[in-house]
Batch of 2 targets.
Target 1
Amino acid sequence: MLFYNFLYYILFSSLVDCYTYTSYQYKIECESSSPILYPKTLEKLQDIIKNAIRSGDKIKVVGSRHSITDAICTDGIPIHMKHFDEVSVNKREGTVTLGAGLEIMDAMDRLMEFGVTVNNLPSFGGITVAGCVAIGVHGSSLKTPSNPSEYLTAVTFINGNGELETVDETDPDFNSFRVNLGLLGVFVSLTFKSTPLYKMKMENYRLGEELLTKTPD
């Protein structure tokens, strides 16, 4: 059977005009005009974007595809940024810069080596750093801002002309980048305010059902 599948691929792959990929739970299936591309360098990423501009193709960065809707789908060119996984720490300025394609868990593991972290990250660590900011993923806190995008201080991205730009908090439009829904270009790296590494304690306990019916005073 494997031989026949391979033979079919050799004979007919040139006739395929669509490709498929799925959500993280395989519940959503998307059809695109290209397989998911994994650029390894900034130059290659810019080439992909500029070629798409010339040909009129759409581009979507698909990340971890942690979605229960078809928002992850494109009929154009899907890109995954997993090779953009830098981690750098500026202790003098109290910031960390993370590659857009890093998953949260990997980023935190690597920041641990420097004794720093970012406040209020989501409990699910499989989301990419850029995706976390793009869709407003949140942690939980009553003491500090619970959305990681609120700690964002700068973004390096490729704009709709295929040009590399960096924008920071001094830009009057910077808040647009905090929850951008992927509409402001392809993010390459993101810089956050950091905090010294800390430990958390979690306690689980059960409350009575009267909590659901009792009217607050």
Note: The chain has two domains: 19-79, 87-196.
Target 2
Amino acid sequence: MMAVEISGVAKTFRASHGPRRVFEHLDATFPRGASVGILGVRNAGKSTLLRLIGGSILPDHGKVRRHGSVSPPVATTQAYHAALTGRENLHFVARVNGFDGDAAARFVACFAQMGEAIDQPLSSYTRERRSRFLFAASYALPFDIYLADEALFGGTGVFRERCAELVQARRTQATLIFTTRSPQMLRRFADIGAVLHEGRLHMFERIGDAIRLFRSLDPGTASDTDSAPEDEEDEEERFADEPFGPSA
């Protein structure tokens, strides 16, 4: 049984220098209950692929079939309003997706140790609190399919490790599809490895095979022994600085 099926998808964007074709005829399937890690060099189309899977953009041609509920990308800010409190935002997002807002708010308040901040406007959050809220909120709702664009988890110190443990727990309960440039993250969190290159998605049952192909395309790839993949930290910085959705 598949969680996501992509058939003959084409996608082209308009750019200042002319059309940029990302996919011409993409076919791919993602098994239900699997954790699929997608490696790719910069500008390979990883974010575009996740946006197509999530439905935030539509293909020019072809079809994307989703069998189950799909999360927004982990730590995205666009679903939240800066003028609303953390609790109000969680209730809104949960209601839109048909989930229990009270349960989501309790989970985030406890897991991210929000204290009274859960009832304060998101615009008042410190950078660290903002990061904790976003990552905890991403896994607070029981989606069938979780999407993560580069950043699977965030925060610092003990919270970061607890967040990584939460990702491991969620991948046993649902389908996880994530992109990365870190072989270490692939080994740690993926059941199936994939490499996106020149508009094609190459899937591998053996993680090592995916990593070898990726390294042949990007010789500067960080070693598996690196303790903190640079792209994970870079992406956490991006989410921490990304603006929330429109304020009231």
Note: The first strand starts at residue 2 and ends at 15.
